[in-house]
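Archive maintenance. Older records in this collection stored only the sequence; we are now back-filling the structure field for every entry so that each record is complete. The fields below show one back-filled record exactly as it appears after the update. Entries are processed alphabetically, and Methylglyoxal synthase is next in the queue.

ARCHIVE ENTRY
Title: Methylglyoxal synthase
Organism field: Tumebacillus lacus
Length field: 130
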Amino acid sequence: MNIALIAHDKKKDTLVNFAVAYKHIFEKATLYATGTTGLRIMEATGMTINRFLSGPLGGDQQIGALIAEDRMDLVLFFRDPLAAQPHEPDILALLRLCDVHDIPVATNIATAEILVKALERGDFAWREVK
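Back-filled structure field:
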């Protein structure tokens, strides 16, 4: 299971805490993240994270490439809906790729929790069918 972890600046603490809370699930997966987010999760959990560039420098697009190649199974992207992002087109492109390739994506902690609990139950077995 390949999982991408992305968070805007004001949501990084939330995603780090989420990763700590669900470490027992995440440590069974291969994790990918954008720059600072990945570093912070690694420092807090000790888990190995495959890190890309920061989002504004192309990290969102690097994760998008994995989605386009059918090499990503789940995306957790904790977005800040109250702040304008200078790389908004990249964010929308990433979300569009998730829709095109049927990749489950959570943009907030409530949806992320539902998806991670489904992952824990084994509800993502359909991803193996492709």
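Update note: The chain has six helices and five strands. The domain at 2-125 is CATH 3.40.50.1380 (Rossmann fold).
Entry marked complete.
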